[in-house]
Each structure stands twice: as structure tokens, then as C-alpha cells.
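Now read this:
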Amino acid sequence: MDVKYDLSAYVRVLKMASTPSWEEFSQVALIAGAGVILVGFLGFLIFAVMSVLPGGV
């Protein structure tokens, strides 16, 4: 493992990185929130179906 090379790669990435604008951040947060809600709803749906079926939870 070449530590000097790894550190220079990390520094190069940090120099290229920038903070997102408020518009970009809010769009990413909205999409991530929609994904969380979708996965939660899907889990609830599976739970509801398993509760109704015989031998469910």
C-alpha cells in the first residue's frame, strides 16, 4: 500500500469537491426522502399482506 500516493489522491479529490448549491441540495434531499418513504411504504405493504394471509406474523 503506497500511503503517499493514497494521500495525494485524497487531497486531489478534496480540492475538486465543492459544496452544493441550495437548489442542488434540496433536490437531492427530496429524492432521497421520496426513496425512504417508498421503501417504508413497501415494507408496510408487505407486512399488511403477511398479516392477512393465514400463518402470517
